[in-house]
Amino acid sequence: MQAQTEQKTIPVYGQYIAGEWRSEGETLPVINKYTGEEVARIVKASREEVREAVTNALETFRRTKLTPTQRYEILMRAAQLCQERKEELALTMVHEVGKVLKDARAEVDRGVQTLIASAEEAKRIAGEGIPLAQPGGENKLAFTIRVPVGVVGAITPFNFPFNLTVHKLGPAIAAGNTVVLKPAELTPIIACKLVEILSEAGLPAGFINVVNGLGPETGQYLLEDERIAMFTFTGSPGVGRHIKSTTGIRKVTLELGNNSPNIVHEDAPDLDRAAELCVTRGFSNAGQACISVQRVYVHRDIYDTFVEKAVRVVQSLKVGNPEDPTTDVGPMITEKEAKRAEEWIQEAVDGGAKVAVGGTREGAVLYPTVLTNVTPEMKVMCQEVFAPVISIVPYDEIDEAFREANESRFGLQVGLFTANLQLAMRAAHELEFGGVIINDVSTYRADVMPYGGVKDSGIGKEGPRYAVQEMTDERIVVINL
Ligand code: NAD
Predict the structure, then answer these.
(1) pTM of the model
(2) Same domain, yes or no, for 250 and 265?
C-alpha cells in the first residue's frame, strides 16, 4: 500500500503495523543529500506504537505459519518485483543517500540476488541425526530440528539501505520468523518501499512491521521490549556495544565498523589492477562502506610507482552530482560528516602527512583524498574514517605489514595482493579478520558468503545461509523407541 501524501508531493512514511500505514505524530524530514531538498517525511513512532508493532509481530508468529515453499515463493516474487522497479529503487537511493546512480543500480542488483539466495535457503533448513552412542542410549532415536527464534528486531544503517535491509528481512522470513524493522532515519524510504514490495509479493500482514524514528528513541524502545527474541544490527561500534549491553541474554548479530587494511606485496600479479581497485573501492559510496579500503600497505620497492598510479586513477574519477550516470563519487551522508573527515585530514597534515591528491570539500562532497607520510596514531589510520580517504604506507618486510594490519581494534576484512601461494595461506592464518581476500581488496563481498567480523567489528555472520543459522534455534528431539 502507498504511504499517505502531504501537500500532494512529499510522501510521509509512518509506522507499518498489521499491514497498515499509520501517519499520526511528529515528523522528521528526509533530505536529498546532494540538493538539500526535502524528499519525504517520516513519523516518529511512539513507545506505544513500538509495543503494538511487537505485539502484532508476536501474535502473527504464534498464529500464522508459512510453509518453506510459501516463503520461497514470496521471496522469489519480491526479487522479481524489485528487478522490475530497479530504476525507481535506484533513484530513491540516489536522492536519500546521495549514492551515485551506478552504485545505486548495482545495489538493487545485489539486493535482488540476496532475496533469491534467501528464498533458496528457505528450502534448506535442516537438522541432523545424533547417534546416542553411550550406555543408556540404546533404543533411542535422536535428531535436531531448527526452529525460528520468534520476533526479530532489525536495525539498519544509512549506507546500503536496500541490500543490508534485504540481508536481514530475507533470511528472517526464510527462517519462519516475524520482524520489527527500524530503518536508519537518514535513509528510511527505500526500506519502506521494500516492505511494500514484500507485501505485494504475498507476505501476509504482521510478518514485517516497520517503526520509524531516531535511534535513541524508536531504536531504544525496541531494545527494551523483552518479547523480541533476537536483534540483528548493522551500524556503528558504539551503538553495537550499547545494543549488546542492553539486550541481556537475548541473541544478537552485530555487523559493525572496520578501518580496512590492504597489503600490496612486491610480487602483486598486476599492479595497475591493484592500484585501481584500492582507489575505486576506497571511494565508492563516498568511502562510506564498512569494508572500504582505508589503510594501504605497499612494499617499498613498488611504493612510488603505486602512489603515482593511484593518484592517476583518482584524477580520472568524476566527482559531484550522484544523479549523473557517469559520476563516480557523490556527496557524503551529511555536510557535518564531510567536515569531520576534512578535520581528520587536517589533523593528519598538521602531524606531517602529505596530501597526494584531494583534501578539498564543497558542502557534503569531499574530494577523494590520498594521504602519504601518515603514522599509525593518526585518526585517518586508527579509527574508521568512513569517508573517501585512503592512506598509503610503505613497508620493507611482510611481517611488518601483517603486524600493522592486525594492530587495530577492528577485524572485518583485509585484502592482500601477492602471487605467492605460501604467503597467501600464511595471511589466511595470521591476519585476524572475519575475511581474508587474496588478490582483491577488503571491499570484496559476495552476498552468499559468510560475512562478519571479529574484535570490535562485531559478532555473528550474515549471508543468507549463515543468517538463517543465527535466526533459528537448534532443538534436540529424543524418541524412546
Ligand atoms: P549508526 O550506528 O549511527 O546507526 C545505525 C542504526 O542504529 C540506525 O537505524 C540508528 O537509528 C540506530 N540507532 C542509533 N542509536 C541507537 C540506539 N541507542 N538504540 C537503538 N538503535 C540505535 O550507524 P550509521 O551511521 O547508520 O552507519 C555507519 C556505521 O555502520 C559504520 O560504523 C559502518 O562501518 C557500519 N556498517 C557496518 C556494516 C557491516 O556489515 N559490518 C555494513 C554497513 C555499515
Answers:
(1) 0.97
(2) no
Residue 1 has a pLDDT of: 40
pLDDT digit string, tens, across residues 47-67: 999 999 999 999 999 999 999
Any domain includes 52: yes
Is 158 exposed, middle or buried, given 0-12, 13-18 or 19+ CB atoms closer than 10 A? buried
Domain that holds residue 415: 261-447
* Distance from the alpha carbon of residue 236 to the mean position of ligand 1, in angstroms: 4
Domain count, the chain: 2
Q: Which helix (H) or strand (E) holds 223?
A: helix 220-224
Note if 400 is an active site residue. Answer: no
Render pLDDT for 241-287 as a digit per residue (tens, 0 to 9). 999 999 999 999 999 999 999 999 999 999 999 999 999 999 999 99
Residue nearest to ligand 1 atom 16, measured at CA: 215
Report yes or no on 340 lying in a domain: yes
- CATH number of the domain residue 153 falls in: 3.40.605.10
Q: Using CA atoms, how far apart are residues 293 and 441, in angstroms rounded to an integer?
A: 7
Is residue 5 in a domain?
no
Q: How far is the CA of 292 from the centre of ligand 1 (A)?
A: 16
- Enumerate residues lining ligand 1, CB below 6 A: 155-160, 164, 182, 184-185, 215-216, 219-220, 223, 234-236, 239, 242, 255-257, 290, 384, 386, 412, 458
What angle do helix axes 101-122 and 163-174 make, rounded to 10 degrees? 10
